[in-house]
Write a structure and sequence with these properties.
Helix content: 40-55%
Number of domains: 2
CATH architecture of the largest domain: 3-Layer(aba) Sandwich
Number of strands: 5
Bound molecules: coenzyme A
Structural class: alpha+beta
């Protein structure tokens, strides 16, 4: 038991993490699961902690996240336990507790005042474990659904800036462009140049015209510019959401007419 180490996940843990996830959520499609895991690795707001057995194998994990709203919580956003699992042979030895403590420490360090979680009504072990670890039960909800038929168009996913940044990183990594010998070094300077080039390509759509010549193409240019913007902020260590909110706040109190 002393050999069990709790630590943040590393990319090399991927297959073991997948094994544990499949034990917790056996019905999830494998492709979707792999894609979701890749995004999580790149998203600073979805921390994953693992219990390492000492032989490179894992024995448990906790996936954290953040939510704008959680039942019974007084603050927003809150930190959230999205997934929590310990291999059967390691249960009742404090591994689950240590994983939760790691998540609590992450949440405190990132400014969250509450950590929320949920479990199924029939999962009494999980309920007892939550209570034992200091969670208080604050609500019970009944989940409903009504099938609406085939939608006319895909619904917006409502992804956060962090999630979109994670997708951009995953794409760039899949191309090998973060490697030291990359033909496209992803330095802040190169990304700033690319951002400007994509913005200029958007401008081209308005040459000699007040309206874009082709809206779909314009959408593609704007998407390219937005992706470079997210990536540039991220590799420069800038929290873009925080920077935008700060700027909006400053603008609200600024005058342009003097
Ligand atoms: C829930 C789970 C992660 C707990 O992991 P764990 O490593 O066994 O937890 P711990 O050993 O740290 O236990 C912490 C406390 O929870 C309580 N607890 C844990 N398992 C329990 C059980 N089977 N019965 C009663 N209480 C239990 C105990 O109070 C325990 O403290 P104690 O051993 O000092 O009495 C683990 O049981 C699991 O993976 N279950 C299957 C997946 C699951 O249900 N995940 C949660 C989904 S929300």
């Amino acid at each position: 038991m002393d050999t069990i180490q709790i630590r943040p996940i590393r990319p090399a843990d991927f297959e073991e993490w997948l094994r544990l996830r499949l034990a917790l959520w056996p019905e999830e499609p494998l492709d979707a699961m792999r894609a979701e895991m890749s995004e999580m690795l790149d998203n600073p707001l979805t921390p994953v902690f693992v219990a390492e057995r000492g032989d490179g194998k894992l024995g448990g994990f906790l996936e954290g996240g953040t939510r704008r709203y959680a039942e019974g919580c007084d603050t927003s956003p809150v930190a959230y336990v999205e997934g929590w699992y310990v291999d059967e042979d390691l249960r009742r030895q404090g591994v689950g507790r240590r994983l939760v403590e790691a998540m609590e420490a992450w949440a405190r360090a990132h400014g969250y005042a509450e950590l929320a979680s949920d479990t199924w009504l029939e999962n009494e072990v999980s309920q007892q474990a939550h209570l034992a670890l200091g969670f208080e039960e604050c609500d019970r909800i009944v989940a409903y659904r009504k099938v609406l038929g085939k939608p006319a168009r895909p619904a917006p996913l409502g992804l956060s800036l962090q999630e979109l940044t994670g997708r951009m990183h995953a794409f760039v990594r899949s191309k090998g462009w973060y490697e030291p010998d990359s033909p496209r070094p992803q330095t802040p300077r190169n990304l700033a140049i690319s951002l400007l080039l994509e913005t200029a390509e958007a401008l081209e759509h308005f040459q000699w015209s007040d309206n874009p010549k082709d809206r779909d193409q314009l959408a593609g240019e704007l998407a390219d510019a937005a992706l470079y913007l997210l990536q540039l902020a991220s590799v420069s260590g800038i929290d873009l959401e925080e920077a935008i909110l700060k700027k909006l706040e400053m603008n609200a109190h600024r005058s342009w007419d003097s």
